[in-house]
Structure formats: structure tokens, C-alpha cells
Amino acid sequence: MTAFAAALTRTWKIGRYTATLTVPPLDGCIVHAVIEWEPHVPNDLTADELQSYRAGCNAAFAELGLLSAIVETNAQSGVKGK
């Protein structure tokens, strides 16, 4: 057994994209999380896709039993029709 715990991950679909949340533990506490997108980071989410992303992100943190503070920058700039 190693002194390092495995990272926690959750993956969900957002339309044609897939998002994977990775939360690496650090000395028993979590200091950051990373969301990776496949096939690439979208810049053209529809309002429904943005809502789906947020719901998936919230569910992923809840499933992992984690509290989070999420900061979005320019969230509307990547939404079609905005």
C-alpha cells in the first residue's frame, strides 16, 4: 500500500462532448479539481448543454461526497445564441 491515495474521478456526457472530473487528494484534503473535455474544450455549448454540464458537475461532486465552490468565467460567452 502506498502513502498516496488514488484520484477520484467521474465522467458524464454533455451532448457530443464528454467531461471527466478528476480530484487528486493531497495529504488527506482536496485542494483542486480538474475537468477535462473530449474531444476538445467546447466553445459552442447550447444553453441546454451548459445546463447539462452544470448538473453533471454538481452530481459528480455529490456522488464523491465532496463540497465544492465552482467559479465560472465568461460562462455565457461559449453559449450559442448569447
SSE layout and pairing:
Blueprint: E1 8-14, E2 17-23, E3 25-26, E4 29-30, E5 34-38, H1 47-63
Q: Can you give a write-up of this model?
A:
By secondary structure, this protein is α+β, with helices and mostly antiparallel strands. It has one domain. It is built from one helix and five strands. The strands form two sheets. Strands 1-2-5 form a three-stranded antiparallel β-sheet, with helices on one face. It has a two-stranded antiparallel sheet with strand order 3-4. β1 and β2 form a beta hairpin.
Mean pLDDT: 80
Q: Would you count the extended β strands for me?
A: 5
Poorly predicted parts: none
What value does the Rg take, in angstroms? 14 Å
Distance between the termini: 51 Å
Domain unit count: 1
Class by alpha and beta content: alpha+beta
SSE topology string:
EEEEEH
Largest sheet: 3 strands, antiparallel
TL;DR of this structure?
The chain has one helix at 47-63; strands at residues 8-14, 17-23, 25-26, 29-30, 34-38. With 82 residues, the protein is α+β, with helices and mostly antiparallel strands.
Can you give keywords for this protein?
21% helix, alpha+beta, 3-stranded antiparallel β-sheet, 82 residues, two-stranded antiparallel sheet, 5 strands
